[in-house]
Amino acid sequence: MTRLRPLLWLLAAGLVISLSACNTVEGFGKDVKKAGQKIEEKAK
Q1: Cα–Cα–Cα angle for 10, 5, 1, rounded to 5 degrees
Q2: How many structural domains is the chain composed of?
């Protein structure tokens, strides 16, 4: 568990930064949509 702790902190910090960057639920939805489009492009 102690080896995973830094990774968990990194993931938590990334989540906080990404959520604060979009400011609103609508902005979060747009970010998720863009991420989904990028995944679909890579899958082709």
Answers
A1: 150
A2: 1
Q: What is the pLDDT of residues 1-39, one digit of tens each?
A: 577 888 888 888 888 777 666 566 677 788 889 889 988
Q: Which residue has the tokens 């902190």?
A: 9
Distance between CA atoms of residues 11 and 21, nearest Å: 15
DSSP tag of 23? -
d(CA 36, CA 42): 10
Q: Residue 32 sits in which domain range?
A: 5-43
Residues in the chain: 44
